[in-house]
Sequence to fold (595 residues):
Amino acid sequence: MSNLKKWPQSAQSLFQNYPLPEAADLKTYFSSPALPYLVACLYGFPDEIEDFASHLENDPKNPGDDPEQTAAETIQVLVEYSEKLREAGENLTTWLTRKHGEDRLEKTDRDEESPQVIDVAPNPPYHAEFFALTRKVGFDQVKRSFYQYNPENGTWEEATPEQLRQEAAAYWKEFADFYSENPTLRTRILVRRTTSFLDSFIKQVATNSYFYPSYGSPLFLHAANKMVGIGSKEKNRDFAPAFFSLNRLPITYLEKAECPLFLKFLKGATSEDDVTLLQYWSGGLAMGANYFQKILLITGEGGSGKSVFALIIEGIIGQSNCIELRTGNLGDRFEQGRFLGKSLLMGLDVPMHFLSSPSAAHLKKLTGNDSITPEVKGSTRTTTIKGRFNVLITGNVTPRLRVESDREAWARRLLHVEFKKDASRTRMDRQFAEKLLKEEGPGILRWMVKGARQLKMLMNNKQDWKVSPEQTNRIVAILDEAESVRAFLGSEVIDTGDPQNNLTTEELYDAYNLFCNLKDWIPLVYGQFNRQLPSLMVELFQSKLRPDIKRRKQKRGKTHEGNKRGYARVKLKNQPEAELTELTPATKKLAGSKH
Fold:
C-alpha cells in the first residue's frame, strides 16, 4: 500500500490488488501504538475509527504541512475503507477466523450419511480476543492489572478477577445458548464453566487483549460529560474506548460556565501576569500530560491561599489522578511505579530541603519527556514510558534547589508564583475551596480549557511558553540562591594574582553570611559552605585551599600570628589594604557595601 488516498474505490478491485489490512500496513502512515486496535475497528467497530484522531495528532509519520488536517483526511479514508470491507463480507468474525481458526472445534459421530455433532470444544485464542474486543477488556502488562471500558464515563477502569470471572461466565452462557436446539451440547458447554476453566480463559484474554493506556492528549480533554476538543478543528465528542483514557476529570464541562469568585480569589492572591501563568499551567494539567515540561512552585505565608489553589486543582483533576510527591524516595526502586496512571504529582506544604536531596534530580526526567522505566511491586515486567507528569509544589518558604551543574534544565522547567496574604480577603481554608468547587467547578474547568487551547496554539506554531521578566527574575533568584556560594564568590571576590592578597575560610564564610542577609537568602551552614568552597575557588580563581594563610589575633593582650586555612591571590571587593585581623575588616566592609 503506497498511499491511502490512492486506494481503489470498489471493494472488488480493492481485494484483487491489496491484502486485507493489518497493523503493519498502517505503520507506513502512523506510529500510534494502538494500531492493532485500529485494525480491529476497521473490521468490527467502524464508529470508533474517527476517535483515533486523538492518537494521530503531530504524528511524525503523518505527511503534509498540516498534521491535523492530514490525520483527519487519512481517518476519513479509513472510514470509507471499513465500509468496503463490510460490502465484501468482511467483519470481526471473519478476521478472527483467519487469525485463530474457527471459533469452535466440533466432534461428530461416524455416521457418514448424516453425521451429528456430539461435542464442541471452544477455540480459546479466538474466544479470548473476541471477548476482549466485544467486552472491552484490556490487560496492562506492566501493572499486571485488567481494565474494562466503562461507557458511562468513558474511562478504562481496573477490573477485579471476580468481575472478570462473572463476565466470562456470562459470555460462555451466550455461547452455549447458540446450541439451544441441542440441549446435550448446550449442557456440555455450560459444565465447562468451572472456576479453573474461567481462570485459564482469563489468562488467555490477557495475551489476546488490546490496551494502550493514554496519559493525556493534545486534542481532547476528558471531562465528566464529554471529550472536550482543544485544537482549533476538534469538536467535542462523545466518550469512546479508542481514547484509552484513564484520567477522567470529575467536573462537568459547560460552554458558558463562569467562575467570578475563583478569579477574584486569584487576583487578590497574586499579580495579573501570574494569574495568566496559572491558567496556562492549569490548562496543560487538564490535558493530562506535561507537554511544556514545567514544574509549578507556589510559595507564600500561611493563609495566603496557596493551599486553597492546590485543593481546587486536586478537585478539578480528581483525587484518583493525583499522588503525593516524595522527592527523597524518587531514587528508590518502586517509587516511580506509584505514578503509573496518575497525571499530577503533588508536594504540598513542603519543607525548605524538599528539592535538596540527590534524588530530587529525577524530577527533570519525570517532567522532561525523557524515557523512564518504572517498576511495579509484584510485577516482573517493566515498560518504558515518557516522563510527562505534571508537578505542583507549595510551601511557606522557597525550597532550596540542588542544581548540580544543571542550571539550564531547571531554568527551563521551573515556574514560581508568590501568593500574598491580604487580611481583607475571605478566610483561606478547605471550606472555601470546597465552596468554590461546588459553586464554580464547571466555570473553573472552562477557565482551564481556555488555558489548554492557548497552549495548543503554541504547540501548533512550535512556539515556547514565554513568561514575563519578573517571573524570569524569580527563577533566576531561586537558582542563584541554590548556588549561593557561587553567586557570592562571583559577586564579591576578586582574583588579584598577587600572592600577598589572601582570605581565610572563616573570612569568606563571614562575608558570605552578610551577602546572603542582604539578598534575603538563607545561608548555608558552615559545613555545607566549606564542602563547596574548595572546588569553586579552583574553578573560578584557580586558587587551591592552603593551610598557611597568616593571620594575627589578639590573645591576653598580646598579638599572635598563626596559620589559617584559606586561599591566596584573592580578596573581597573594596577590601581595605590594611592588614586583616581575623574576620572583622572584610566583613564590615562588605556589610557597608550595596548589592
